[in-house]
Each structure stands twice: as C-alpha cells, then as structure tokens.
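Recall from the previous chapter that SMILES is a line notation for molecules. Here it describes magnesium ion.
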Amino acid sequence: MRKKKHIETTLVILTRNEIEGMRALVGRIPFEACDEHFVVDFESDDGTVDFVRKRGIRIIRQEKPGRGEAFRLASREAQGKFLVFFSPDGNEDPADIPKLLDKLREGYDMVIASRFLPGSRNEEDRFLVRPRAWANRAFSFVANLLWNRGGEYVSDTINGYRAIRKSAFDKLQLTAQGYAIEYQMTIRAIRKGMRIAEIPTIEGQRIGGESKAGSIPTGLRFLWFLLREGLTRF
Ligand SMILES: Nc1nc2c(ncn2[C@@H]2O[C@H](COP(=O)(O)OP(=O)(O)OP(=O)(O)O)[C@@H](O)[C@H]2O)c(=O)[nH]1
Ligand SMILES: [Mg+2]
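With both inputs in hand, we obtain:
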C-alpha cells in the first residue's frame, strides 16, 4: 500500500475579486514550499474563480463574507499543522512564504510579516503623510501596552500576511468576522503568552481591482473592536 503523504504545511490564498493580482502573482507563489494549498473565495465575479479552477487549484467558496470567516473556514479545511495565509492583491511578496514557515519550524506559534521593522517597507512610505501606517502603528502600540508582558514588541499586529500553528489558531477561539481578525489573533496570542516572531517584509502596491477596506470605516471598526476585546475575559 502506498504511504499517505504527511501534510505539514497548508497555504491558504484569500480572494474577493482579485483577478488581476492572481494573474500577476500566481507564477511567483512557491506552491512547492507547501504540502497543500487552496483558495478561499468570497463571491468573486471578475473571473478569479475560473482562473483558479483552470489551474487545477482547489477553491472553497465562502457563504458568509469577511476575512474572519475566511480564516476560520480555512483552518477547518486545512490538513497541515502549519497554516500560511497569502492575499494576492499585490501588497504581499510571495517570496516571504517559506521564510514565515521556517520561523514556525523554529518553534514559534505565530509569525507575522511586518511592515514596520528595520529592513521593512510600508506601502505608504513613498508619501510624507501616512495615515494608514500611523494608525497601524498606534493600534500596535496600544495592544502591546495593554497586554504584552515581557514578550518581544510586536510591531505589526494587524498585517494579514502571517503563518500560525493550527493548534494555536484553534486555542485563540477567534470571533471577528471581517478585517479585525488579524488584530484579534495577535492580541489573543499576546494575552496567551504565545511565542510570536516577525520577519521584515516589503509591502507592494495593490495590483488591480479595488480595496474593500475603506480606511475610515475600518479604523472606526478597529477602535470599537479594541474596546470590546479589552472587556472580553480571555
Ligand atoms: N476570502 C476572502 N477574501 C477577502 C475578503 N475580503 C477581502 N479579501 C481579500 O483579502 C485581501 C486583502 O483585502 P483588501 O481589500 O486588499 O484589504 P487591504 O489589504 O487592507 O486594503 P488595500 O491593500 O489597500 O486594498 C485581498 O486579497 C482580498 O481579496 C473576504 O470576505 N473573503
Ligand atoms: Mg491589500
């Protein structure tokens, strides 16, 4: 009998109308660095679904919207003990995928691609006024101030480009539906005293399509979320 291949790593690609990004990036994604991969898609109607299927990539269609939903669905479907989440909109450099996984192999519970470390670059760095980057740094500052007791400072608590052990993901019992999912994941990992590492990343520009995360509504949602999370016993 043939021995079943051991699945260590699962690559999850998150899409909601990302045809241009997928076209540009699919050839650069190091699929061979992962034992399993699939796309989690929410209602794309721009050709993303066909594009993915034609390449023989498994696609899981989400029924409820939101990145939070996508992360939980992916974790239920994944067979690997290490999960790495990649969004093909141009912001994330696919070459970081093996680097994130290597850090998990070193024993960390979660590894974040940070846009705010020495050697990193943030999408807004080309501008003088950087509202999104400043808001991101402020949210990270508050999370560390409130909950980080002696762990390494986490410089980018919000970036979605990250890898995590499935066992750690399950322990965090994440409830956020949308873009707050990553922030919640980091806050709860800090509160649980999990081992968190960061690697510097170079954030690229969005390749095509549209951002679904307007800065002001997303920022306000984060503030509201921070308040609720602060009041949650965990
Ligand atoms: N599966 C899934 N993917 C989503 C959902 N919402 C957004 N995405 C994907 O998540 C990634 C990040 O979403 P964006 O809208 O680019 O948000 P952002 O990165 O904060 O904003 P910009 O980079 O400025 O556009 C993209 O690849 C989206 O296609 C969702 O509900 N489900
Ligand atoms: Mg983006």
